[in-house]
Amino acid sequence: MSVTPKILVVDDEPTIRGMLYEELKHKYSVSVVETGKGALKKIKHNEYDLVITDVYLPDLNGLEILRNVKQLHPDSGVIVITGQGSIESAVKAMKDGAYDFLAKGFSLDEIKVTVENFFKYQRLVKENELLRSELSSRYGIDNIIGTSEGMQRVFETVEMVAPTNATVLIQGASGTGKELIAKAIHQCSKRSENPFIKTNCAAIPEGLVESELFGHEKGSFTGALKNTKGRFELADGGTLLLDEISEIQPNLQAKLLRVLQELEFEKVGNPQTIKVDVRIIATTNRDLREEIAKGTFREDLYYRLNVVPLDLPPLKDRKEDILLLVEHFIEKFSKENDRAIKTLDIAVLKHLYEYDWPGNVRELENTMERAVVVCREQTIQMKHLYFSQDGDIAKKTESAVLLPSGMKLKELEQRFILQTLDEENGNRTWAADKLGISVRTLRNKLREYSEEK
Q: N or C, where is the chain less crowded by C-beta within 10 Å?
């Protein structure tokens, strides 16, 4: 069951209290109180997502309640109820941070729409705070590049598992695109309209992991200045990405296992159990079975995470994708940097295929960005490249003769592959090995070339 938003209604008129309670109780957890002092007591001991308060109360002005809510719980919203024609109070409330106001005599539809709009607004604010400003279309499966057999298997798994709620463990070396695949799974799922929350387990200080994941109560430890929701609670209804899960400390792995099994937890400093509806995706660049053998990772947690395993191949094992990736990066960085790059020197393509790419797709992207930025011609040459393993390879290798201006990258690849095949006297096995691709891939490309004639 999802975390139900909590609403506090403050009004001294029984009719209004009862009306609001009856209208909102079916969708929200609603508490009611008739005095301002009673409201302040509740606010000090509880965190409400939304407070609906009358401005004129027998013992306290509702604007004082507004100020207290904003001081104790800055993320909570307040809707004030004003008397007919009390524009001055409404304006004052908005200046003090109220989300909206309602004039007495409001209809049930009006309160329902106002409350629903607040929670939509609150969700958008949280998403922006967690850097979810990227367009969802950027993470669709159609925008992940790769035609190799390894990537086709990845795509098939993503399309199969995305509509389900199954936990996914994405394994692969750094730079292979694990986070991009996780986002694609979320965006292709039924949860795509709800939050996608990322937690980099390797980047959280050791003493704060539990607080980051589960949240904490104000005063539960030094520096806990306010009640804070953890990543599990923020991801309610959506997807939680546990990035680099192998970095979770052993003493927290048992607690994490329980949360994954029961989808319930307690905040630091609060014994109350919170239930959430969260889909879990975890990533790792380590072999967790080796970590289990070393005693640094729980075997039962591994099996709970490894419901659907998804292994991303390193770039050195999918070199047939290099040209597509290069074409994409040249187009992307040419637009960003106002360049008119049209092709590559064939010597550049040769090195792109022969290099092992220890940093995988991320390293290829960085390499092509640098090449585009420093290139002032229409053709990227050896002098524009830099590889982390080899240093500035332009100092080591002379550029080959430039190809005709305007030659497309696809044509360049064909010339390069045929040239390599010729160098190996037509031996497809040797040529494929030299190119870093499978014999089957080479055979398919040769068939493609013959069909184009």
A: C
- Report pTM: 0.63
Could you tell me which residues come within 8 angstroms of residue 61 by beta carbon, excluding any fewer than 6 positions away?
36, 55
Q: Domain 6-129 carries which CATH code? A: 3.40.50.2300
Low pLDDT (below 50) residues in the chain: 1, 131-139, 391-406
**Is there a shared CATH topology between the 6-129 domain and the 317-452 domain?**
no
Are 321 and 152 in contact, with CB atoms under 8 Å apart?
Answer: no
Q: Residue 15 burial (CB < 10 Å; 0-12/13-18/19+)?
A: exposed
- Report the CATH superfamily, name and number, of domain 136-313: P-loop containing nucleotide triphosphate hydrolases (3.40.50.300)
Which tokens go with 417?
């592959």
pLDDT at 394: 42
Distance, CA of 302 to chain centre: 22
Gap between the Cα atoms of 441 and 417, Å rounded: 11
pLDDT of the residue at 407: 55
Residue 221: closest CA among 236, 233, 209, 235: 209
With a CB cutoff of 8 Å and minimum separation 6, the contacts of 67 are: 96
What's the pLDDT score for residue 451? 62
Report the distance separating Cα 417 and Cα 350, nearest Å.
Answer: 9
φ, ψ for residue 339, nearest 5 deg? -110, 165
Q: What pLDDT is recorded for position 436?
A: 75
Separation of CA 39 from chain center: 38
Q: What would the two tokens of residue 444 be?
A: 């398919």
Quote the crossing angle between the two packed helices 322-337 and 360-374, to the nearest 10°: 40
Q: In angstroms, rounded to a whole number, what is the distance separating the alpha carbons of residues 46 and 267? A: 13
- Domain borders along the chain are 6-129, 136-313, 317-452
Angle (CA) 280-286-290 rounded to 5° is: 110
Structure tokens of 55? 């401005």
Chain mean position to CA 265: 22
134 close to 180: Cβ distance less than 8 angstroms: no
pLDDT at 7: 95
pLDDT of residue 78: 93
